Amino acid sequence: MGLPALEFSDCYLDSPQFRERLKSHEAELDKTNKFIKELIKDGKALVQALKSLSTAKRKFADSLNDFKFQCIGDAETDDEICIAKSLQEFAAVLQNLEDERTRMIENANDVLILPLERFRKEQISAAKEAKKKYDKETEKYCGVLEKHLSLSAKKKEAHLHEADNQVDNVRQHFYEVSLEYVFKVQEVQERKMFDFVEPLLAFLQGLFTYYHHGYELAKDFNHFKTDLTISIQNTRNRFESTRSEVESLMRKMKENPHEHKSISQHLMEGYLFVLEKRSFVSTWVKYYCTYHREPKRVTMVLFDPKSGGKMGEEESFILKSCTRRKTDSIEKRFCFDVEAMDRPGVITMQALSEEDRRLWMEAMDGREPVVAQLDVIGFNVMKKFIYAVETRGIDEQGLYRIAGVNSKVQKLLSLTMDPKTCADVELDSPEWEIKTITSAIKHYLRVLPAPLMTYQYQRSFIKAAKMDNPETRVTEIHTLVHRLPEKNRQMLELLVNHLANVASHHHQNLMTIANLGVVFGPTLLRPQEETVAAIMDIKFQNIVVEILIEHHERIFQQVPNSADGPNNMPSNQSRRRSTESKAPSCSERPLTLFHTPTHSQKGMNTAVSVIVSTSTTSPSPTSPRSPSWPMFSAPSSPHPVSSASSDSSPVSVSGRKAIALYACKAEHESELSFIAGTVFLNVHASREPGWLEGTLDGRKGLIPENYVEFL
């Protein structure tokens, strides 16, 4: 039920029902007054809370903005850079949001508190003042009326007339006050419908503006949020792999601390005991020794931690030689003798253990070579493996990521690396799974004495990957590749071209360039020292491999402007010489022989020698006709030769064997057609200048002189 209407005509009657209706209006005004009073109090508390919240959020944003990430290593990946600046981005968003909140708080006093206080003071207070006046006039009118009605009728007429006029005046004034009060009460009741609600609406509009501003900020922040989410996921993935590597290194160092002693490429240091003669008595004195490889300088400092760490004078000399001391020649173990260029005599030193002596000996004399080398056997095996992968399983999912059985991998490598058994290995056989072949490729690269991209340039490649400009990274890596030794660059080109082919089938094998970088980065660029810093650089090793694969045509087929030297010849430059040019040099010749019988010759137990050509103009290694692949073709029947032997020749040869360095297609029936690696029998001088005569598969013919090399 709503409030009853107050009729102005009821003011004249002033009935009890009118008074009851008026009281209900007065009670509603009191209720409204109390509600507005509490609302103003709560509004002020809300504003104060918003100010406190804004202050706390600004302090939080300032803390985010002041914090700076420090990553392990001397450079950061793009993902790490994105994450590092994320705190500043968060702080900027919060500060922007709080600026809008501050504007809302400042407006809240004007649009909410002041209007409510004004309505309460100007309207409700005015109604209360009108009530007081109405009550006062009611009391006055009732008193005058009662007094007037108590007058005796015996009074004089003039006195009674005057009293009647006085009552009429008081009644009229009472009616006027009553009308004004009723008007004011109803006016306030009506005005509160908009004067009271409108400030609340304005305040809510300010809130909505604030939240809409936050919504717009969220939309603008969405792009960075997406990039940050990807960077966080990538960093988490790298962390998981890196964490396992670091834990593995920690366990290794706990189990075999001496095997993981920090070894520098240019420096060796540690404690050694030196045999000295003092007062005709030989004694062992403890020194802290440092050996610098480049100037071959040995520095010794007398130091004993037990004596309080007192350091003696420094002695130094230039190393001339270092010789392991035999056990039967001295009572002490782990000894070796050194000779100095600038001081006479032999200095006998004792290491702390056999492993420590090995490290000192390696630092001073060098290390023993390992079996695996970048020789022709290695090239042939790699090409054979790559050909099998590209023809049999290039679309297999998880190529190079799924590891083969270690025993099978070792068996395959031992068979293919042995010249006696390599020809019998048939990679088309179901015995050799693709994962076994791919694991053999990776294992071969890992057991090389030095990584394919060399220890010398390992740090340079990592430094190039850390450059900020992507184009500069490619350019620097391009230059470094052409500084590699010739064999290393050839093997790297062979491998990277293959990996590019694998990546081109990533829709089938799921091996993207990034996945291949993860697989081959630590293998091609393994550090000389296994440290935490080196593990942290694995991500940059992966980036180097990604760049090599993505830009392989530019890197290997174009010569960088900054590259110079003999190793930086254009890759598309033909190394084949014409019959009128000089013979190829040793660096331009094939590396060695790879023996495999052809199908027609297996029954005859005859081996055909095929050579791996280093010519960059040869067919693709995936082609069965490639000179780098062990194949053979020759006419099946002999043809007559019209040439005759000569008594004189610029080359004194007679009945010798020779091997073809390059392929040649006969242009005349007296000439022989052959591919690189073909072996000729009974080679001797020919009457034709620049030509030799030889026998191939029972047929005699002419051979270009500078196309072959005598065995």
From TrEMBL:
<dbReference type="InterPro" id="IPR047234">
    <property type="entry name" value="GRAF_fam"/>
</dbReference>
<dbReference type="GO" id="GO:0005829">
    <property type="term" value="C:cytosol"/>
</dbReference>
<feature type="domain" description="Rho-GAP">
    <location>
        <begin position="372"/>
        <end position="556"/>
    </location>
</feature>
<keyword id="KW-0206">Cytoskeleton</keyword>
<feature type="domain" description="SH3">
    <location>
        <begin position="653"/>
        <end position="711"/>
    </location>
</feature>
<protein>
    <recommendedName>
        <fullName>Rho GTPase-activating protein 26</fullName>
    </recommendedName>
</protein>
<dbReference type="InterPro" id="IPR004148">
    <property type="entry name" value="BAR_dom"/>
</dbReference>
<feature type="coiled-coil region">
    <location>
        <begin position="87"/>
        <end position="173"/>
    </location>
</feature>
<dbReference type="InterPro" id="IPR011993">
    <property type="entry name" value="PH-like_dom_sf"/>
</dbReference>
<dbReference type="InterPro" id="IPR027267">
    <property type="entry name" value="AH/BAR_dom_sf"/>
</dbReference>
<dbReference type="Pfam" id="PF14604">
    <property type="entry name" value="SH3_9"/>
</dbReference>
<keyword id="KW-0965">Cell junction</keyword>
<keyword id="KW-0967">Endosome</keyword>
<dbReference type="GO" id="GO:0007165">
    <property type="term" value="P:signal transduction"/>
</dbReference>
<dbReference type="InterPro" id="IPR008936">
    <property type="entry name" value="Rho_GTPase_activation_prot"/>
</dbReference>
<feature type="region of interest" description="Disordered">
    <location>
        <begin position="613"/>
        <end position="651"/>
    </location>
</feature>
<dbReference type="GO" id="GO:0005856">
    <property type="term" value="C:cytoskeleton"/>
</dbReference>
<dbReference type="InterPro" id="IPR047225">
    <property type="entry name" value="PH_GRAF"/>
</dbReference>
<keyword id="KW-0728">SH3 domain</keyword>
<dbReference type="InterPro" id="IPR001849">
    <property type="entry name" value="PH_domain"/>
</dbReference>
<dbReference type="InterPro" id="IPR001452">
    <property type="entry name" value="SH3_domain"/>
</dbReference>
<dbReference type="GO" id="GO:0010008">
    <property type="term" value="C:endosome membrane"/>
</dbReference>
<dbReference type="InterPro" id="IPR000198">
    <property type="entry name" value="RhoGAP_dom"/>
</dbReference>
<dbReference type="Pfam" id="PF00169">
    <property type="entry name" value="PH"/>
</dbReference>
<feature type="domain" description="PH">
    <location>
        <begin position="265"/>
        <end position="369"/>
    </location>
</feature>
<keyword id="KW-0963">Cytoplasm</keyword>
<feature type="region of interest" description="Disordered">
    <location>
        <begin position="558"/>
        <end position="600"/>
    </location>
</feature>
<dbReference type="InterPro" id="IPR036028">
    <property type="entry name" value="SH3-like_dom_sf"/>
</dbReference>
<dbReference type="Pfam" id="PF16746">
    <property type="entry name" value="BAR_3"/>
</dbReference>
<dbReference type="Pfam" id="PF00620">
    <property type="entry name" value="RhoGAP"/>
</dbReference>
<dbReference type="GO" id="GO:0005925">
    <property type="term" value="C:focal adhesion"/>
</dbReference>
<keyword id="KW-0175">Coiled coil</keyword>
<dbReference type="GO" id="GO:0005096">
    <property type="term" value="F:GTPase activator activity"/>
</dbReference>
<feature type="compositionally biased region" description="Polar residues">
    <location>
        <begin position="558"/>
        <end position="573"/>
    </location>
</feature>
<keyword id="KW-0472">Membrane</keyword>
<dbReference type="InterPro" id="IPR035483">
    <property type="entry name" value="GRAF_BAR"/>
</dbReference>
<keyword id="KW-0343">GTPase activation</keyword>
